[in-house]
Specification:
Elements (H helix, E strand, L loop, with lengths): L1 H8 L14 E11 L4 E4 L5 H18 L4 E3 L8 E5 L8 E5 L3 E5 L3 H17 E2 L2 E11 L5 E7 L7 H13 L4 E5 L1 E2 L2 E2 L8 H4 L3 E2 L3 E2 L6 E2 L4 E2 L4 H13 L3 E8 L4 H6 L27 H17 L4 E5 L6 H5 L1 H9 L5 H18 L3 E5 L12 E4 L4 H8 L4 E3 L2 H4 L21 H5 L10 H4 L2 E6 L9 H8 L2 H10 L7 H17 L12 E6 L6 E6 L1 H4 L7 E6 L6 E2 L4 E2 L4 E9 L2 E11 L8 E4 L28 E4 L3 E21 L11 E7 L6 E2 L5 E5 L2 E21 L16 E9 L1
Parallel strand pairs: 2-3, 2-4, 4-6, 9-10, 9-22, 10-17, 17-18, 18-19, 19-20, 20-21, 21-22
Antiparallel strand pairs: 1-8, 5-6, 5-8, 7-8, 11-12, 13-16, 14-15, 23-24, 24-27, 25-26, 25-28, 28-29, 30-32, 31-37, 32-36, 32-37, 33-34, 33-36, 35-36
The structure holds acetamide (ACM) and zinc ion (ZN).
Acetamide (ACM) binds next to loops.
Length: 751
């Protein structure tokens, strides 16, 4: 009796290991012993929806613990029961009480699925020997946003219907509810359309793919492709419904249309012929807005609508070059006839025509934020990907918005240092960055905020050639986005999230789901004490930085042939250092071994001033920290200028003997990054009279990083001035022809 009183009077706030974090959790005293004798009571046994969820839960138990729970009708005086009380209306909400004698869940359908997802994580977390000792608690849970999505591009690489189902399982596991299926693009058309069989006979297959990174410009010659029959689609849609996930199909228009044009060239502005594209990127050949094109797209959409019961159809709308439209007599005539200002308004006319058609069929359109250009169709929702600005503009016009800015929601970006991660498109979007995303921008007022439906993570698959790679890139970032869209903003707590994620990675292992463990990776910073000018190497890790490490965790330094040692404090740099470090928990390594090269030189940590500041896009780097910019991928070590020269003056703080200077530059002409056309180097004792170094440099390169090494007669000096001249305008025939190139520099080594 006393126990019961205590358990109802005292409750403590605590974090259970559940992702996404529930809205409210109250811990009670005691625990419930969950084991193979636990029985499930469906109080309202006519609720078919709840029965289905119980079967899914039992399937999971069977798969991973080797037993199922018995389903019984209520009998008095029984213990070790899970009661499931249905509620009137189905929603994502659930209530859940673990008491020592029973677990009571109040939910229906989707809500019950969500309750079981929480329960599964708790069972895993507390399982010892033959039972889980579940802590007594009360959870009341519901979602912050109605659109909790994940996107998957099946065009750049194709994933089978069974793999797509596994992806839907992940979405559902994280209490998310939207699967944005990117079904058509330049590199493949992936959905059978009965009226237009060539779309999949021809448009689903390409004659090769890019290998390595885009910038390598290498291809294989293997026929590649695949598509889903309408039967497959029906199966996947039904499967998703059983997991409470709505599928939003994306049929791209007017751009990213090459696979369709390869099948039906008459829909383009010119005669073609067109091929399903092997290369990644944005292509000039797009749908021409002529009557046959609209007839084709409307017929396609009729079949699409008949397959996907959701309210929204995604029509793409992004990255549509206007090159062909500018030269096409039909397009130009249409612009005049409709009184349009330009090709941007023609794009808007295109989208508006499709929107009218979909509205007539009681569907809503959603498109990438380019559909704002030239005017939004009246009912269109906007998916904001080029930052949040498009979403803000749309919400201000009272249009619905899904936030998915590249900076936080593109899971094709690197999640750790490119040196230790599989090849990715670029970018840097680690777990904590995703977690910090808030889909509701400050710039919106109360009313405008109500137009933000939610957010989603996007997974473009140019570099994801297998489903394991898809999972690796998605996870655990999906855990972070699930918390962004599910958990209340005021509950945000990075430390708590990281601690739960560590446990969650074990849960992913247990469920045999591939994922990244890059949160264990070590990062490096070099900092100089501004009073002593002593320079130190700091080893960091997101768990340590946020107090999310366990007491037995440590960072182990592995210094080449030197004995390993535990990293305890910043290391003073007095010589070059080539080694690495790794995270250890209870003596076992986690994450990857992360290498570090420090090139000691006289300029280390000294003062540098620039005549012209670097571009705000690439201004985090440090040219005097002993760490050379990474190549061929760009990381934050580099400083860059666009179309401008770099002039830097370094003050060594005292006269020293100088005999060598090495400057590192990056070359990546596909990305508009050019080597300098000239470098000038000067030394000075007084920052007034500068003596030029006239010996030519010795130029060496590794992986697109070029070193310009000057050696000269030992000269006394305190100041070094380096002028690195940006290359002239990008020549014809090159990517970005006629534009000013980028100049990337790191590091300046002075000896
Ligand atoms: C996009 O990433 N092109 C929407
Ligand atoms: Zn045209």
């Amino acid at each position: 009796m006393l126990f019961l009183i205590l358990s109802s009077c005292f409750s403590v706030k605590a974090q259970l290991n559940i992702i996404p974090a529930p809205v409210s959790t109250d811990m009670m005293f005691g625990n419930f012993k969950f084991n193979s004798n636990t029985k499930i009571v469906l109080v309202d046994d006519v609720d078919e929806k709840n029965k289905a969820e119980v079967l899914f839960f039992n399937e999971w138990l069977q798969n991973y613990y080797g037993y199922k729970l018995e389903l019984i009708n209520y009998t008095k005086n029984q213990k070790n029961l899970i009661y499931i009380n249905s509620v009137k209306n189905e929603s994502e909400k659930y209530e859940f009480q673990i008491k020592p004698e029973q677990i009571v869940i109040k939910a229906k359908g989707e809500g019950l699925k969500n309750a079981f997802e929480s329960l599964k994580q708790l069972i895993f977390d507390t399982y010892q020997q033959h039972e889980a000792i579940l802590p007594a608690c009360y959870i009341s849970d519901s979602a912050r946003f109605e659109w909790r999505g994940m996107h998957l591009d099946v065009c750049r690489h194709f994933f089978s219907k069974d793999e797509v189902k596994k992806y839907i399982d992940l979405i559902s596991m994280y209490k998310m509810n939207v699967f944005h299926w990117h079904l058509t693009d330049d590199q493949g058309w992936r959905i059978e359309i009965k009226k237009y069989p060539m779309l999949t006979q021809k448009g689903a297959w390409r004659k090769g793919s890019m290998i390595g990174h885009y910038t390598d410009h290498k291809f294989d010659t293997l026929r590649y492709g695949g598509f889903y029959t309408q039967q497959d689609i029906k199966e996947v849609v039904a499967y998703a419904a059983s997991k409470h996930v709505t599928i939003i199909p994306e049929i791209e228009m007017p751009g990213h249309a090459l696979a369709a044009l390869a099948a039906y060239p008459e829909l383009a502005c010119n005669d073609g012929p067109f091929e399903v594209e092997k290369k990644w990127g944005v292509f000039d050949d797009v749908f021409c807005p002529k009557p046959e094109t609209f007839e084709f797209l409307e017929n396609v959409l009729l079949e699409v609508m008949s397959l996907f019961p959701g309210q929204f159809i995604h029509i793409g709308g992004d990255e549509c070059p206007k090159t062909r439209w500018k030269k096409c007599s039909h397009c130009q005539k249409l612009i005049k006839e409709k009184g349009l200002k330009d090709e941007h308004e023609l794009q808007s006319y295109f989208i508006q025509t499709i929107e009218k058609f979909l509205t007539k069929h009681q569907k809503k359109i959603i498109g990438w934020d380019e559909i704002l250009e030239g005017g939004l169709p009246p009912q269109a929702a906007v998916m904001s990907w080029r930052g949040t600005e498009g979403g803000i503009a749309a919400a201000k016009q009272h249009h619905e918005v899904v936030m998915t800015p590249g900076s936080h929601c593109y899971f094709d970006h690197y999640q750790g240092h490119p040196a230790v991660e599989p090849l990715a498109i670029g970018g840097f979007t680690p777990l904590e960055k995703v977690y910090h995303f808030n889909p509701v921008p400050e710039a919106l007022n109360e009313n405008e905020r109500s137009f933000i439906l939610g957010a989603q993570g996007n997974l473009w698959t140019e570099y994801l050639t297998s489903f394991d790679a898809v999972c690796y890139n998605a996870l655990p970032r999906m855990a972070a986005i699930s918390e962004v869209v599910w958990s209340p903003e005021q509950n945000k707590d990075l430390t708590g999230f990281l601690k739960r994620t560590k446990k969650h990675l074990k849960y992913l292992n247990f469920n045999k789901i591939p994922h990244s463990e890059s949160l264990y990776n070590i990062t490096y910073k070099v900092k100089t004490d501004s009073s002593t000018y002593k320079t130190y190497l700091y080893l960091n890790n997101v768990l340590f930085e946020n107090n999310a490490n366990d007491s037995t965790d440590l960072i182990m330094l592995l210094a080449g042939s030197r004995a390993t040692q535990t990293y305890k404090e910043p290391i003073m740099i007095t010589s070059s250092f080539h080694g690495g470090a790794q995270y250890f928990t209870a003596g076992k390594p986690f994450g990857k071994y992360c290498g570090i090269d420090i090139y000691y030189h006289k300029g280390l940590g000294k003062k540098i001033t620039f005549t012209e500041p670097p571009s705000t896009y690439y201004n985090k780097g440090n040219l005097l920290d002993g760490m050379r910019g990474y190549a061929p991928r760009i990381n934050e070590e580099w400083l860059a200028w666009t179309g401008k020269d770099m002039e830097a003056t370094i003050d060594l703080k005292r006269i020293d003997t100088l005999s060598a200077v090495t400057i590192g530059c990056l070359k990546n002409e596909t990305d508009w990054i050019y080597l300098p056309h000239k470098i000038e180097l000067y030394t000075s004792a007084d920052n007034n009279t500068f003596t030029p170094i006239t010996t030519p440099p010795n130029i060496t390169s590794t992986k697109d990083r070029y070193s310009y090494s000057y050696t000269f007669k030992p000269t006394p000096g305190r100041y070094v001035k380096v002028k690195v001249y940006c290359a002239p305008l990008i020549p014809a025939e090159k990517n970005g022809a006629g534009n000013r190139p980028w100049l990337f520099v790191d590091e300046i080594e002075i000896n």
